[in-house]
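Researcher: Go.
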Amino acid sequence: MTIIQLAFFGLITLLFLLALRDALHRGAAYGIYRFFAWECILLLIVIRAPGWFDEPFSRHQIISWLLLILSIVLAVLGFRLLLKFGKPEGGFENTTRLVQTGVFAWIRHPLYASLLYLTWGVFFRHPDIVGLMIGLVASAFLYATAREEEKENLARFGEAYEGYMRGTKMFVPRVF
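Model: Structure:
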């Protein structure tokens, strides 16, 4: 990693810490897991940046672009639905209503799914063993984040969330 890449990584890490300071201060496990997931994703982006546009029409680059586009679409749809139907108090995460429409009708965690697709989209820019290991660690942290958030949602929404969990998958419609 070059000094510029290292400085960029450090700066973004600081921004992540500032963004998550409330969750980290409260000891919210999902905030801590999410922080490490973002760190893995950032590391993957930083080490992939130099060859980002190499072999632009290769199979792995096309897979990468498809995953990156899916990531953006899920993030935009997820945020819009949470803000519109979730009736958030404070931040968009503190919804007062369970959202079960749009993309949330298919998967419980479209925003975390978006980060998963981002992770693997970046991995496919230049697939190798280092990227695979970082991608697996990021995926594990995202899974842990989603599980912790589900505990919080069960406490907040009770039986309604239990039924929602039975009818939807976590990240991939009808699969997982």
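Model: Residues 105 and 168 are 7 Å apart (CA to CA).
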